[in-house]
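S2.1 Query sequence (GntR family transcriptional regulator)
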Amino acid sequence: MQTNRPDWSALMPILPEQGPRARAIYAALRQRIEEGALPSGTKLPPTRDLAARLGVARGAVVAAFEMLAAEGFTEAKVGSGTFVAEAVPCLVPAGPAPVPPVFVARDLPGDLGLGFPDPQSLDRLRAILARVLARPPAALFHYGDPQGDATLRAEVAAYLRAARGLRLDPAQVVITTGAQGALDLVARAVLAPGDPVWMEDPGYPSAKAAFAAQRLVPVPVDDEGLDVAAGRVLCAGARAAYVTPSHQFPLGVVLTMRRRLALLDWAAEAGAWVVEDDYDSEFRFAGPPLAAMQGMDGRGRVIYVGTFSKALMPGLRLGYMVLPEPLLAPVIALRGRADRAPSALTQAAMAEFLAAGHFAQHLKRARRRVRAARDALVSELAATGHRVRIPEQGLHLVVSLSDTADDLRLAGLARAAGLGARSLSAMSMQPGGRKGLVIGFSGHEPETLAAAVRRGLAAAGLT
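Output structure tokens follow.
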């Protein structure tokens, strides 16, 4: 195991004040040691290099180092250099011991059930990444295309045409850092601050955060999905509508065909954009495949957003969106000003992962695993007397509670007992929202999930 400290000596900022050079260099180094900026064990710059950097005679630097050593601030190690001594005075007042940062899961149920990648898929992806690093393409040594790697965009376009029924050209695809990155680009490049935006209510909290600069219009969701007629009454002139039509988050309903057509008609009439978040479309367990709304849109009003986070792993930070042609220029320009381009390394690996058929194979295995977890969760809930809508798609389900239940408190009790539950009412924009628990089930073995359900429901007093 590597135990040596990293050697930052060549970059160390040393700025002596005016006066005799040896004394000034000594004072500057001593101050940084006493303030804790140079902790014990830190290597100091070689005297020759520091003298050249400061434009002074090497003798002045040697004299400064000798003064520091004489006072016990530094020690020389033959053949290695000069280092800050193990025990030195520190002028920084002692305070309480630093507390290591702890990640606290916020009530953002979009993170529920992201799960873990299939180990076999990880092996293949790891091998691809190793090959890319062993024989790196030229793109890795340059700033990439803000729109994303052309090869990956072509593979994504082929996948979306075949699996989701989209009508698109690779030139319409923009590679993003996940779905959240796509929503942020839309909010900043397509919409203006204060523009009214329809939001599903209840809906996805992270989408509300992405459109925080706009005026959010909560539109109710029923068994047919977003109520378009209600949206027209609330704000017919909205500039956009954010929807999850294939599997509404969090209720799990599907936007019916008549509502889809009504939404597209409204968008065309109002000159508005429909932001279609297809966040978990890969995980459909029953019924006919659901085509995306973008494939039905003949008037160019749909912005399609997808991600590899749910199907593979969020750590890849790869997503995509399909844009109508008029929006490409402003979105790509903003991307270039923000983070310039996606990671060339992960894009190259993902392009090969798709082209070689590994992603399709992974999805077959992942669907089986997720379905088994879903069935275990449903079975355990049924055994404790809870009726739930069995999801035909997705990575979570909703346990409905009475209108008088404090689902925020109950969700907290369930989480403390190890069950990944979130409050349904917390996802409503209007007071008095429906009460329930949103429970994710991907990434868990059925037995582990069943045990967590028993513990969580018992802790919340729901058994």
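Confidence is low (pLDDT under 50) at residues 97-115. The longest helix spans residues 358-383.
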